[in-house]
Design goal:
This protein is α/β, with parallel strands linked by helices and about 220 residues long. The protein is built from 6 helices and 12 strands. The longest helix has 24 residues. The two termini are about 25 Å apart.
């Protein structure tokens, strides 16, 4: 690993999670360097945020490729070219093929807006409300071929409050997503978190449950 771990960030939209990473790096709270940002649309605001920070940003659009596997191959070739130690999916809204992910096992993570394994996939906030959950949140997990199914590293919880709609709940979750991701990435970048088979190891011990964010700190 490079002395300062290099991150490739994949983002599809507004890029608030990317911004949280850029801010944490700039403020010395995350000991890493963002080596490149990759989107799936030219207009993704995340790409603008990257360029504003002087970071190379590139859009690769699935529709410009003949097949899913060709798209995956091109994306991961572009990602590999910036020589990342870790790939962070920060609001990246595309499925990644098993073959493309395999070489990066243990070095690719995703932030997902639910308390996994609950509510994999899309529209997590509306579905949590519909299910009458008292609690909701976000998870940072290792990416595997199983959609939103890889080993969970850490979670942050928020209450569902009376009168919440999906937007209000999404905002409350987003506020904890950012510190969750930064704290978990710092543990990953400093080698304190590792993937061991299908388990997550923290300081050399297999985690029996995901780390939990409390008062902006992760605890077992
Ligand atoms: C975040 O809430 C992230 O958890 C979610 O998309 C949003 C992106 O926001 N990701 C997924 O749903 C992945 N399946 P951002 O663009 O402001 O970071």
């Amino acid at each position: 690993m490079a002395a300062i771990p290099r991150l490739a960030v994949l983002a599809s939209g507004r890029g608030s999670n990317l911004q949280a990473i850029l801010d944490a790096v700039a403020e010395g709270r995350l000991h890493a360097r963002v080596a490149g940002v990759f989107g799936d649309r030219h207009k993704a605001f995340a790409l603008e945020r990257a360029r504003d920070a002087g970071i190379p940003a590139q859009a690769l659009r699935p529709r410009d490729f003949a097949s899913r596997s060709e798209f995956d191959a091109a994306l991961f070739a572009a990602v590999a070219a910036v020589e990342p130690d870790f790939i962070v999916c920060a609001g990246y809204m595309r499925l990644l093929g098993a073959e493309a992910i395999a070489p990066w096992e243990g070095r690719i993570v995703n932030i997902h807006p639910s308390l996994l394994p609950a509510f994999k996939g899309l529209d997590t906030h509306a579905r949590a409300l519909e299910a009458g959950m008292a609690e909701h949140g976000a998870s940072l997990h290792f990416v595997s071929a199983d959609l939103d199914g890889g080993p969970v590293i850490a979670q942050a919880r928020v209450p569902v409050l009376p009168g919440d709609d999906a937007d209000a709940l999404a905002q409350r979750v987003l506020a904890v997503e950012h510190p969750l991701m930064i704290s978990a990435l710092e543990l990953l970048c400093t080698g304190r978190i590792r993937l061991r088979g299908a388990a997550v190891e923290f300081d050399g011990q297999v985690l029996q449950a995901p780390l939990q964010l409390a008062a902006n700190r992760l605890r077992a």
